[in-house]
Amino acid sequence: MSSLFKREIKDQWYIKYNNNGYPHVQQGFVLPPNRFEEFDPFLLMAEDWFKRGTFSDHPHRGFQTITYVIDGRLEHIDNHGGHSVLEAGDVQYMNAGSGARHAEEAVDNDIAHTLQLWLNLPQSLKNTKTSYQNVYLEDVPCIKVEGGELKVYSGEIAGDKGPMNSLVPITMTEISLASGATYKHILPENHNAFVYVLSGELELGESKTSLKKTGAATLTFNENGKNESEFNIHANSRAKILVYSGVPLREEIVAYGPFVLNSMEEVQQAYRDFHAGKFGPPAE
Questions:
Q1: Could you tell me which residues come within 8 angstroms of residue 83 by beta carbon, excluding any fewer than 6 positions away?
Q2: Would you list which residues are annotated within the binding site?
Q3: Domain Pirin C-terminal: where (predicted)?
Q4: In a domain, 261, yes or no
Q5: Model confidence at 1, in pLDDT bands (50, 70, 90)?
Q6: Parallel, antiparallel or unpaired: strands 112-120 and 131-135
Q7: Would you list which residues are annotated within the binding site for Fe cation?
Q8: What angle do CA 156, 157, 159 make, to 5 degrees?
Q9: In the prediction, which pLDDT does 93 show?
Q10: Helix (H) or strand (E) holding 115
Q11: How many domains does the chain have?
Q12: Which pLDDT value is given to residue 284?
C-alpha cells in the first residue's frame, strides 16, 4: 500500500491590518484579493471588526460567501425576508448566484469580529438561485482526537460530515489542540488548501514550519491525484487553526466590486441589472 501524499507549507504570511475607524474598526486580508489563480477555488478572505452600519444593504453575483463569527453577534438581513442572528462559532453560507441583496450588521452596540471567505462558482452555476444557510455551532459535529478536538463545518473529515451544503464541495474544519498535541489532518489530495491560525503557535507539515496567531499559509497538493493526503499539525502551545480545502475550477475570473464573473461584459451587465432593480428591493 502506497503512503499518503504528505502536505507541506507552500507559502506563508501574517495578516496586515488597517485601522479604519468607526464604524469599520479594523480589517485585514487573510487571503489577499489579487492571487485568484493561486487560491482557486477561493477568491479572498477578509477578517473584520465592525460596528453597525458598516455592511448595510449591498448586492452580490457569481460567487459564494462563508462567514465565520469569531466574536460578537452578526445580524443577517436579506431582501427575501430572511433574518437571523449568528454568534461566536456560527457560520453563514450564502450562494449569491444570479443576484443577492443583503446586509450583514453588528447587533446593538456589539463589535462583530468575523472571517468572510469568498468561494468562486463555476460558470455553469453562476446563474443559480440565491440561497442562505445558517450553520449553528450546536449543529456542527465535534470529534474528539488525542489532545484536542475537530469541528467539521463542511465536507467529510475523520468519518463525520459537516452540515454546510456548498454548491462547490469544500472542507472547512476548526482544529483545537492542547500544548504538545499532534494531529494528522486527512484531506483529498486534489484539493487546494489553506490554513489560518486563530490562536497559539503550531508546527505545520513535514518541515515543521512555525506559524502563530494571525498567520496564514497555502499547502502543497496534487491536482491530478485521486487519493487522500495527510497534513501534520503539532501544537507548541494551546492552539486553534482553521483549515479550508476545495478543488480548483481553473476558469477565467473577472472580479469587480461585489461581482465575480467570467468576463468584464458580464460584470457590466451585473451593474446594469442592479441599477435597473433586477436584484429586488433593499434589504432592511
A1: 75, 76, 77
A2: 58, 60, 102, 104
A3: 173-280
A4: no
A5: very low
A6: unpaired
A7: 58, 60, 102, 104
A8: 85
A9: 97
A10: strand 112-120
A11: 1
A12: 83
| Residue 102 neighbours by CB distance under 10 Å | 24
Does residue 279 fall inside a structural domain?
no
State which residues form the domain around 184.
5-246
Residue 203 sits at φ, ψ, to 5 deg, of: -110, 125
Residues 6 or more apart whose CB falls under 8 angstroms from that of 21 comprise: none
What is the enclosing helix (H) or strand (E) of 188? strand 182-188
Task: Determine the Cα angle at 260 with ends 104 and 36, to 5°.
Answer: 105
pTM (2 decimals)? Answer: 0.97
Q: Which amino acid is at 89?
A: G
Q: What is the mean pLDDT of residues 148-153?
A: 98
- Assess contact for 231 and 185: CB atoms under 8 A: yes
Is the residue at 283 inside a domain?
A: no
133 found inside a domain: yes
Residue type, 8: E
pLDDT (average), residues 210-227:
97
Task: Identify the three-state secondary structure at position 59.
Answer: strand
- Asked if 187 and 228 touch (Cβ cutoff 8 Å), the reply is yes
**Distance, CA of 187 to CA of 237 (rounded, Å):** 24
pLDDT at 3 over 90: no
Residue type, 66: I
For residue 250, what is the DSSP state? -
